[in-house]
Amino acid sequence: MANMTFIWAVVGVVAYIILAPFVGGLLAGFDRKFTAHMQGRKGPPVLQPFFDVSKLLKKEITVVNKGQRFLVVCFLLFIVITGCLFFAGLDLLMCFFALTTAAIFLVLAAYSAHSAYSHMGAQRELLQMLCYEPIILLIAVGFYVATDSFAVTGILHGTVSPIVWLPLLFIAFVMILPAKLGKSPFDISTSHHAHQEIVKGVTTELAGGNLAMVEIAHWYEDVFLLGVIFLFIANMNHWWTIILGVIVCLVVYFIQTLIDNTCARVKWNEMLRFTWLVAIALGVTNVILVYYLR
Amino acid sequence: MGNRSVIPFGPQHPVLPEPIHLDLVIEDEKVVQAIPNIGFIHRGLEKLVQKRDFTDYGYVVERICGICSYIHGMSYYEVIEHIMGIEIPERAKYLRTIWSEMSRVHSHLLWLGLLADGFGFEALFYQCWRLREKVLDMFEASTGGRVVFSVNTIGGVLKDMDSSMLKSFVDIFQDMDKEIHKCCDIFLKDYTVETRLKDVGILTKENAVLLGAVGPTMRGSGIAVDTRKKYSYAAYDKLDFEPCVAYEGDSFARCLVRIEELYQSIDLIRQAVDKIPAGDIITPYKGKPNGEFMFRAEQPRGEAIYYGKANGTNHLERFRIRTPTFANITPMLNILAGAQLADVPILVLTIDPCISCTER
Amino acid sequence: MSKVLRFAGTAMKNFFSKPVTTKYPFVPCEYTPATRGRVVIDVDNCVLCGSCMRHCPSLAITVDRDKRTWSIQRMGCIQCADCVNNCPKNCLSMGNQYFEPGTEKVEESFEIPAKAGGASAGGGGGANIPVKGDDCVYCGLCAKKCPVEAITVDRAAKSWAVDAGACVGCGTCVDSCPKKCLTMGGGEAAPAAAASPAPVHGDGCVYCGACAGSCPVAAITVDGDAKTWAVDAGSCVGCGTCVSTCPNEVLSMGAAAAAAAAPAAAKAVDPAAAAAQAAIEADLPADVPVQLDGCVYCGVCAKKCPVDAITVDREAKAWAVDADTCVNCGTCVASCPKKCLKMND
Questions:
Q1: Nearest to C11 among A41, A42, A261 (CB)
Q2: For burial by CB atoms within 10 Å, which of A110, A137, A217, B186 has the most?
Q3: Domain ranges of chain A
Q4: What pLDDT score was predicted for residue B128?
Q5: Is the Cα dihedral C339, C340, C344, C345 positive or negative?
């Protein structure tokens, strides 16, 4: 049995490392296509993110300073590690810590450039972390309280889908997901559109290969985040939840695109207020309820 | 006393519609002071008056700016007509009024789109500009150009809009009404938009008067003055309207004033189409202008003053324009002080800056 | 109604509708009939008067009378239609298709064919200034329509005159006359002798040759020594440059001139017997023009001098330059038809 688990873990990791960029890139392409149709345009082809990244890789390397490349590589590395830990079925809390570490590397990369906009973007990214980190940790706690396990495999093999116990936490997660995905209303540190007062924020001073690595890292991250959504729904004892999980993932992703197109970008104080008052309130309430009801 | 740094904002900045440079002295995320620097798009168009005949210079004046183009051109010809004592036919006055108001509609829709873009709501930006496309199509059908119309001349206008065309335009505006309401509704009622506009950049009534604000910037702070009403020109004395005004002085108030002006312009077009008389569209003239005249018009951005001086030769001696944005830059600097960095694009956009006009 | 996500309805409606954007340029754009796309010229009606070139605010049009071409810089044109509105022959119009965008600046040139025969039935190709017939009522419409204001009409005094020097031969007056009493050139009433398009040589010619030098088609021959003046009527295009160049206003176009004027009013003009040539040169400061042999005191140098430093008296045969005023530009040297000036060095 332990052997099977190990083999599945290896399969998961390898599949993630190889397939996640493609899945993530396609998701990004569909996001752009859906956004365009919501705005009455045709939009770029669905494979556009791949064209963009290949163009970025062909560009001349102009680094602001040598340290930046190392930091961006670390960022990519830690995102991949996050996903690998997750898809190997290991500890969820470890995954989230790895994710946070990756984000810190990105912030350091932004700080390493001597650019006012880059620094402001880094500051805002740290602020964003203050907003979504509590939820992320609450999710890990919530899963533990609901399924008595921090490990992904353990959660998957629980008695019932976690969402039965954690609906409010799920909603809270969907609410703060725009911050992680870089979408309105919480795209204060960087977004896909450069039309904000700090130009491109965190990624202002990244170009060429560095920016390509950040793009690919975001694809890996998107797959990981959708994996967390999937974790809420799927349960190995009921095979149909797996299909439902995938569908819910796609629906949530679509809803994120819709929210992006129907909200203005809010200021940091509003974001802080909303996430702490609404999202965290929902999450904490849910966890406490589950703790007492189980 | 926090950490002070200077952020250069512009002239190349994705959120700015036109190049202006502001050195923002910021303390953490708060702007302490904004130091402006203009002149990036100065083309010497006022000097060109020495090289182009007064009959041809109108085309230069029209091209000072793409958004305010029509009223610039019309005002130039009004100045010449007043210097030469030419009385243009009634129908021409009404046609000029209709085109001016359509120009105001397109300008305010453009501004609404830019404002939406300024606070990160791209979908609303595209929606406003979609509506604006219909107005541009109407311009193309009636004058031949989408942005620059070249339809005015000394003594009147060059192209006529017959009654079927005028009626079709009124119908198009009628059809657009529901769409415009839906768009403007988002600006006025959506929660996230409200957090970006309400209580942001308050310009008090005293400051508006002291610093010389004009146009919707001034009317958003409670001063009910409109040049179309105060110094009537074209056919405005025959139309029924009151200046749109709001009292809070924040960005939301200025947005509200422009939205109300948008509806008001559509109503003015309807009124003008009802009242337009038949007749000529041009009065012939002879000779060269000699004299000077000062003319005021209400651009979508505020009051613009046009001064022309002629000396009987083919070239005017001087043609000077005081644009509304120039008057509004000082109030803008006033409201930037103490604002948050995230509000800077909104506050710059809230005066509806037209730097091309300002710098000519 | 909810206060958040208000735009969701419109966003979803857009999502399920067709996009409003078109795939231009793969799908052609539809323009309106009134669209000011590009300037179109009807070469058959163009008379190369150059009005369009003078009016163009962006200096995009070039009219070359010698080469008979009309060119426009397509990328410089701002589609204002100023040229179209000012063309006296209405040979320009605005087409509604924009010029295709490209990576290079394009200048399009059109050949303007020469008019065969001309307007009048008389021989020689028709003169290029209008001639008034008997039906004239002095309404003044021709004067109003003239793009260069060459016609003067006085209703009370019943007088009608055309300034041959200003007339560009566009024929607008002929088209605008309600009585149809104007014709270009000799017409039936004019004497046959004056039916040529060429300038007529009147009294006072000093054979300076300025007209020959200025003629764009080299139709005039002047021999200062032999005191002969001749024009090749076949080459003459009737532009009137010689008339305006002549310092003594000896020439005029067409029948209005005194056709009976003796062509070779050979005035005894001593060539500049400026004998004390070297003495003059030595006295003058450097960098002023110096008069050599051959001066005929035509006065072109004095007329052309931008600072009015030269004085010429034809009667007294005197020529002088004010060395203080002279700015050493050399315009006089270049303009002298006898090439009898040079800069003193």
A1: A261
A2: A110
A3: 2-24+59-293
A4: 93
A5: positive
